[in-house]
Amino acid sequence: MELLPIKPLDGLAAPLPTPLERLRLTPALSGAAGSNRAPASATRIAAADDLAAVTAWLARYADSTATLTTYRREVERLILWTVLQVGKPLSSLTHEDLLAYERFLADPQPAARWVLAGSKKLARGHPDWRPFAGPLSPSSVRHAMVILNALFAWLTEAGYLAGNPLALARRRRAPTRARITRYLSHDLWETVKDTVAAMPTETARERRHAARCRWVLTVLYLGGLRASELTATPMGAFFCRRDGQGIERWWLEVTGKGNKTRLVPATDELIAELARYRRAHDLPPTPQFGETRPLVLPVIGREGGEKPLSRGALHLILKEVFGMAAERLRARGPEWGAQAAVLASASAHWLRHTAGSHMTDQQVDLRYVRDNFGHSSLSTTSGYLHSEEDARHEATQERHRIGWIRKA
């Protein structure tokens, strides 16, 4: 095997893992003559080796950055394991090899070769980069194997592989879906809101930062959006239409997982918060149709030419808020330490789970929660069911509120 130059590691004779895009394999490990390769006449893709075949599969997910990143990570780990640890190409893996790999995921050894030292995430080009942050949990192992099964199934269907070595895996009964635990209780959610309401507003920058934190929490909670949806949606995605009785209702059009579009009820409360946030930036209270400004605006910078907030920046904003809320709890006394730790570990997706949990607590119809959150694809005829959508809007507005307390 031929790898790009990497810093040697004491005590490890084998080369260190290399990111997929920098990996160079010898002919024996390239898969050009893998034992599970299908006859050339059956191949329906133009891949001559394993890396090219895997690249063709990953290209199918180029329109979804999050999915592509996840799938590349799992494929990368498998290829690095099979060439470094097993000494055979991907297209020669057997069912027994993949059982061994499944066990490896739960405990990647030797750790010095496979596991990142420390908690700081490193760039893929860094010499100390590793494909693992630590052992995978049982659920993460299952998820990884599901992804790899999809890979092998596609390569088999494409005529690149003669068979799917994971097709022989024992069919396990689907586990009962675990109850969502990563969400904030009503009391913790009130603590977060109180924390934001108490943020300093002495300077113009502080006022805009506080307004941004409040808006981010509001739209994630009232809209139940994913982080990727928040960062990708423009202000112009809000629109108003009249129902059959002439009542104006606001909606937010969101494109989520699988490039599927859904309509999220924009309640009166959400529209009022949108107006409040826009006024903080000296903008008209309601966005114009087709407005390209991102949902979250920069604290400083030229108006009108804003770039969308990155997911990393969103993560930092929320970590600051949750961190301040955790400190607020710790100040009450040591008995609040456990609750503070929960807050400190929260993330954007916790707010989505929090919104869903609070909606069901308020007995919002589960069908409406499902459609608000985009948990299942909409049927072809759903676009015509305006009366049902209006009932969903009314139920969401009546029972799902954020309840900001205005400062005197």
From TrEMBL:
Q: Which GO terms describe its molecular function?
A: DNA binding
Q: Does the keyword Transport apply?
A: no
GO annotations under biological process?
Answer: cell division; chromosome segregation; DNA integration; DNA recombination
Domain Core-binding (CB) residue range list: 48-156
Q: Where in the cell is it found?
A: Cytoplasm
Q: Does the keyword Protein transport apply?
A: no
Q: Which UniProt keywords apply?
A: Cell cycle, Cell division, Chromosome partition, Cytoplasm, DNA integration, DNA recombination, DNA-binding
Where does the Tyr recombinase domain lie? 179-399
List the GO terms this entry assigns under cellular component, sorted alphabetically: cytoplasm
Q: Which InterPro entries match?
A: CB, DNA_brk_join_enz, Integrase-like_cat_sf, Integrase_catalytic, Integrase_recombinase_N, Tyrosine_recombinase_XerCD
Question: Mind telling me what this protein is named?
Answer: Integrase
Organism field = Cupriavidus basilensis
